[in-house]
Design a protein that fits this description.
Blueprint (H helix, E strand, L loop, with lengths): L2 H17 L6 H8 L3 H7 L3 H23 L6 H17 L2 H8 L1 H10 L3 H4 L1 H15 L9 H16 L9 H16 L2
Helix pairs in contact: 1-2, 1-4, 4-5, 5-11, 6-7, 10-11
Length: about 190
């Protein structure tokens, strides 16, 4: 990454973590990175544009932390619950990741720009390994194909991308209920 672009990214990362999206301006990012405001636009189209890059970086960083904490050999239900629990714990005090839950406009932009990012993510690749392991260990119900299992988990991603449209005060519980339902369909 170009030095100025990296400095802008690093400054945006710090400011979005400290202040959140709304309280951070392009001028703030430029000032902290010691880059002219006009130069900002050579690298990013808007504050939303740089935010999506910062969000993706932060999201993958948190996912790595989660994968380092969980035991992939645990019981599948326990493992998936632990992953979801860690996602909510680690994102609850993170101003960047909270924008996913609190800012419908940013949620939509992130979802649109990241349509293929799900398949490339650490969580997704780990899920594929887990499904292969569950198949190998004969934990999967008869007639359940890998494609169907992946589709069920993909449906969770679609729900998460549109979580701001779901009228509930306890999204975390809703997600846990859906996961429990999916696992009851998949596992013996």
């Amino acid at each position: 990454m170009d030095d100025k672009k990296q400095r802008l990214f690093d400054a945006a990362h710090v400011l979005f973590l400290e202040r959140g999206f709304k309280k951070t301006s392009i001028a703030d990012i430029a000032a902290l990175s010691d880059v002219a405001v006009g130069s900002f636009y050579l690298y990013f189209q808007s504050k939303e544009d740089i935010f999506v890059d910062v969000y993706n970086f932060e999201n993958e960083n948190i996912k790595r932390q989660i994968m380092d904490k969980v035991n992939l050999d645990d019981d599948p239900i326990k493992l998936i619950r632990e992953v979801i629990d860690q996602i909510f714990k680690l994102s609850s005090n993170n101003a960047i990741l909270q924008e996913w839950f609190n800012n419908q406009k940013l949620n939509q932009i992130i979802a649109e720009q990241n349509s293929s990012a799900v398949e490339d993510s650490l969580i997704y690749s780990t899920l594929m390994k887990l499904i292969d392991r569950w198949i190998e260990e004969d934990l999967i119900k008869d007639g359940m194909s890998k494609e169907r299992m992946v589709s069920l988990f993909d449906a969770l991603t679609v729900i998460d991308f549109h979580q701001s449209e779901i009228q509930t005060k306890d999204y975390y519980q809703l997600l846990n209920d859906l996961i429990e339902g999916i696992l009851s369909v998949i596992l013996k």
